[in-house]
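ok, trying the design again with the full structure, not the truncated one.
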């Protein structure tokens, strides 16, 4: 009896794991962000030194030479003008440094940086970034970057051949910049928060407000529009605002999904949403194959005849068209049925893109078609 009971429990757990679910729940922190709590972009111009002859050509990259001159002058060295004209160093490269300043970053914090060449340097491998100020859109310096680069690519070769892996003209430095100035932002002491949805949707915004009110009580949250949800900390709750936000963002909500088909003709990629529906429509797709072959015929005179041997080119063109299979897609079919029906006519990804565009033009596609 006990053995039979264990088997029943095991089968029930297996059925629960493999049974299809109507929807899925997602945490609020994965659906929305607090207004004002965001990253800030930083950018700076700098020099990478220590390259093994893979830097910029000073004769072509004028800005690299000018940056070196300015750096030498700031170091207090006086060099004659004729020496500057004869300067030729290929172990230096001009780069642009970019970084993301996270919210609530304080002076002394370390952030990651990305370094990219802007000259004709062939590789930044083995280089060291000199002190580079990173500025924001307002022109103020918020961080300073410096250190050895980590380049995930290699490039070797000569005049006749070249071997390259990944991109050696771009690299990164983990924790390579130190924050020198913080962005002025603080959470409101009143506890009034405004959440911005990452994907605009009225239904999802309404569900988030309902889930918050069910957890903390009515009047805590109110959906303002399809993107904004206003949240007020209940007065009965004690503790700081951070604990309230942590508890709030752990609430799970089932987001609503728009019916979309995203296609990329360049790569042949097709992504279809589960809620895509197609009205009753007949689809026929045939391919026209054009084959062009060229051959050479040798024209040679008789042994005792006058003349010369010549080569006469001959071109053969063959055009064939595959038979189109007419497939009827019934109304309201789901994603799996659409895929099986279109695969039945042997459609390739690029053919499917053309078919979806034609179905959309016919008004039978109940969803949004996004072409990248």
């Amino acid at each position: 009896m006990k053995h039979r009971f264990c088997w029943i429990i095991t089968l029930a757990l297996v059925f629960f794991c493999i049974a299809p679910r109507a929807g899925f729940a997602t945490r609020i922190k994965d659906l929305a962000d607090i207004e004002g709590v965001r990253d800030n972009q930083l950018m700076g111009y700098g020099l990478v030194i220590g390259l093994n002859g893979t830097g910029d050509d000073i004769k072509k990259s004028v800005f690299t030479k000018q940056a070196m001159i300015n750096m030498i002058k700031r170091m207090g060295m006086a060099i004659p003008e004729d020496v500057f004209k004869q300067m030729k160093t290929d172990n230096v490269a001009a780069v642009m440094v970019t970084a993301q300043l996270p919210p609530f970053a304080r002076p002394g914090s370390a952030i990651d940086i990305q370094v990219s060449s802007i000259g004709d340097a062939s590789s930044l491998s083995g280089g060291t970034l000199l002190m580079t100020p990173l500025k924001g859109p307002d022109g103020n310096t918020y961080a300073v970057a410096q250190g050895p680069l980590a380049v995930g690519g290699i490039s070797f070769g000569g005049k006749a051949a070249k071997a390259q892996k990944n991109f050696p003209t771009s690299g990164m430095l983990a924790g390579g910049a130190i924050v020198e100035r913080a962005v002025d932002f603080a959470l409101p002491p009143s506890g009034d928060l405004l959440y911005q949805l990452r994907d605009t949707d009225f239904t999802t915004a309404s569900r988030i407000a309902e889930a918050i009110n069910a957890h903390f009580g009515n009047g805590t949250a109110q959906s303002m529009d399809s993107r904004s949800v206003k949240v007020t900390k209940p007065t009965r709750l004690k503790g700081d605002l951070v604990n309230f936000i942590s508890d709030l963002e752990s609430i799970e909500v089932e987001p609503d999904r728009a019916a979309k088909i995203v296609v990329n003709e360049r790569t042949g990629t097709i992504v279809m949403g589960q809620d895509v529906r197609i009205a009753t429509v007949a689809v026929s797709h045939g391919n026209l194959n054009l084959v062009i072959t060229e051959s050479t015929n040798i024209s040679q005179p008789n042994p005792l005849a006058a003349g010369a041997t010549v080569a006469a080119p001959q071109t053969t063109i063959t055009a064939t068209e595959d038979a189109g299979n007419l497939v009827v897609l019934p109304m309201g079919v789901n994603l799996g049925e659409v895929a099986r029906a279109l695969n039945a006519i042997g459609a390739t990804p690029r053919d499917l893109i053309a078919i979806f565009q034609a179905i959309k033009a016919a008004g039978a596609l109940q969803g949004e078609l996004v072409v990248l």
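Keeping the full-length input from now on. The chain has seven helices and 23 strands.
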